[in-house]
Amino acid sequence: MKKIIHRQPQTAQMLQVQYRMPKDIMGFSNEWFYKGKLQAAENTEFHAFTEEEPVLEWIDTAGSGFSDQVNEESLSTFNPEEARFACTYLNDTLKRIGFAHFKQKKLVHWLDCALFCASQDAQTFDFRYV
């Protein structure tokens, strides 16, 4: 991609409106990569699970013993323990809020995310709540 953009810079165009996440979540990437020019679509700008749930929550896993690993082929880093933690946290959040809320609000893509987590590590996901 970099070669194409270098050879034909007129072909490169930055995303202007994103339709997937609330404004608070896109804040970092908007400032870092888009110089503050990225906009959230109206239907996603302020959406949240519930009014009580935070849109964004930072969880510091430093000192937790989770170890990064490196894929020998791609040299990408990954962390299965941290991913397992994130899936468990998502599962617990979905249970706390209630799956009916997600179905009623048509937020079923979050249920898909939870099921993806479950497919990655069935031991972390509690299927009784689906």
Short description:
With 130 residues, this protein is mostly helical. The chain has helices spanning 2-7, 23-34, 80-97, 99-104, 108-120, and strands spanning 17-18, 39-40, 69-70, 77-78. Helix 3 packs antiparallel against helix 5.
Structural description of this entry:
The protein is mostly helical and 130 residues long. The protein is built from five helices and four strands. The chain has helices spanning 2-7, 23-34, 80-97, 99-104, 108-120; strands spanning 17-18, 39-40, 69-70, 77-78. The strands form two sheets. A two-stranded parallel ribbon has the order 1-2. The protein has a two-stranded antiparallel sheet with strand order 3-4. Strand 3 (69-70) and strand 4 (77-78) form a beta hairpin. Helix 3 (80-97) runs antiparallel to helix 5. The protein is flat and about 50 Å long.
List keywords for this structure.
130 residues; 42% helix; two-stranded parallel ribbon; mainly alpha; disordered C terminus; two-stranded antiparallel ribbon
What is this structure's SSE topology?
Elements lengths: L1 H6 L9 E2 L4 H12 L4 E2 L28 E2 L6 E2 L1 H18 L1 H6 L3 H13 L10
Parallel strand pairs: 1-2
Antiparallel strand pairs: 3-4
Helix pairs in contact: 3-5
The secondary structure category is mainly alpha
Percent of residues in beta strands: 5-15%
Number of E-state strands: 4
The helix content, as a percent range, equals: 40-55%
Radius of gyration equals 18 Å
Give the ordered list of helices and strands.
Answer: HEHEEEHHH
Put simply, the count of helices is 5
